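FW: tagging you since you asked about this chain on Friday. Here's the raw sequence from the shared folder, copied in full. Didn't touch anything.
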Amino acid sequence: MLLAGGCDGRAPGPAPSGTQTASVTPTGPCDSDTVLASWPLARLAAQTVVVPINSSQLATVGPQVAAGVGGVILFGAQAPDDLKDAVAALVAQAPDGIEPFIMTDEEGGDVQRLPNLVGRLPSARDMAATMTPEQIYDLALQAGTVMLANGVTMDLAPVLDLDDRPGPNNSNPDGTRSFSRDRTVATLAGLAFAHGLVDAGVIPVVKHFPGLGGTNANTDVAPAATLPWDELQRDGLLPFTAAIEAGLPAIMVSNASVPGLTALPASISPEVITGVLRQQLHFDGLVMTDALSGGAIEGAGHTVPSASVAALAAGADIILFTAIDAAGTTRQTIDAIVAAVEGGQVPRDRLEDAVRHIFEVKRVDLCA
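HL: got it, structure written out here
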């Protein structure tokens, strides 16, 4: 199983299997970078892709897991009763024992995939309005414990965007998914939720960097722009800065453009990922895209495969998308990444670096 990195100096709760070990047989003194350098491009590319599936149909993505995808994201309104066994059977197919992230969106309120397992959770806005940070921590700890017991190792939560408008809806991606428009309230509540997940052994992914609060559209539906960059730096960016300082392991980047910084969707923008997130804020954890099948990406002229190449080139590590034909889109995306490396559009070193970030969060030891 997978373990998250510690937060705020505290050790995470243990996942059942501890550090993953890969069955490699080096010919001399082993070095993880040397092992990655020996991997075929297709295997490296597969690790950067997350395949989507309804949780009731997990067995159908067995071929993708056997091919070494980096993650599986669960959709649906509730989980099957046998989710734990289905996940165990699925991850057993992963090559060399390098299990994929098993992830879902368990935020609370309108965004829950496993309510029949973890129970109905209040929306983020209701949590912040009615609960102390300690109570939010306890709630997330309890939910995370149930998630991990059923094989779910990553939660795409909490939302750290600052928003107090109606939603979520076609014009506002946040609404009640945001803890508060007040950055102090949102930071304390959001980090409490994240720490609860970590201490349950589940990896939190804070989102949507650099802040979707106040956007002029929903990026799932259409191109959208955030508030101006100078305004974001004074306000909406600060909860993410706090999350980085707290040592949280993973950040999701939004598909909105950022006026004053980039005209590209942030998830495919080197100015956002490499310039701000890596160099300015010194984040060295896992960078995940928002779904590259969203309307904002299509509006920028990209398909999922071409956007995936652009995201990796910009500095992202792992790719999300939704698709009717998940198997076909996964195959096309892996092929596009391989072709981009072979053609010089994405340096092989960048692809290896992405996999290195993935393995650091998974705690994979290639030389065990």
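FW: The chain has a mean pLDDT of 93.
HL: agreed, and The longest helix spans residues 183-200.
FW: great, closing this out.
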